[in-house]
Amino acid sequence: MQDIFFNDWDSLLRILIVTLVAYPSIIILLRVSGKRTLSKMNAFDFIVTIALGSTFATVILSKSVSISEGIVTFGLLILLQYIITFCSSRSQRVSDLVKSAPTLVVYRGHLIRANMLKERIDEDEIWAVLRKGGHSTLEEVDAIVLETDGSLSVIKEIRDTTAPPIKKLS
Q1: Which residues does the UniProt record annotate as the domain YetF-like N-terminal transmembrane (predicted)?
Q2: What is the pLDDT of residues 106-126, one digit of tens each?
């Protein structure tokens, strides 16, 4: 029964030391890897985040995993995430492989039920995002889009596509 509440001081000391080394290490690696690592998550980002958390917990609690093994694992996961995001920002093919495309669920006051069913979005979610934006009817917005990170974006007004594009400032 004593094992449930307390094993020994060595175990607690190990957890203290490992946490004090592993935690700053993962923070440094995440900061070096850039903002993209901690951005709103798509499925790929979610997997990396879960893997980092699982590795962190294993390093802290498992005596069979050394701090150096954990730090190498952190670095490798972050490096792989960096490589994938680097490639997906430069290749549409890679981007399509790791990210889903946005999906139109409301257009000009009409629910697109086929897309809602496919993406498992119910009407209550549509109404919630409308209310959050201060809208009371579907007709007040031109579109609602399910974004790649799972959030719903409300587009109040679709711009005229015949207008000339805005030139990029140098």
Answers
A1: 16-86
A2: 999 899 999 999 989 999 999
CB atoms within 10 A of CB 66: 12
Residue-number span of the structural domain to which 31 is assigned: 2-97
Binning the chain into helix, strand and coil, the percentages to the nearest 5 are 60, 10, 30
The DSSP line for 44-72 is HHHHHHHHHHHHHHHHHH-TTS-HHHHHH
- 68 lies in the same domain as 112: no
DSSP 22-48: HHHHHHHHHHHH-GGGGSS--HHHHHH
Q: What is the mean pLDDT of residues 71-98?
A: 86
Does residue 59 share a domain with residue 39? yes
- The alpha carbon dihedral of 12, 15, 20, 23 has a sign of negative
Kindly give, in sequence order, each residue whose CB lies less than 8 Å from that of residue 23, ignoring residues fewer than 6 positions away.
56
Q: What is the pLDDT of residue 110?
A: 93
Separation between Cα atoms, residue 74 and residue 26, nearest integer Å: 7
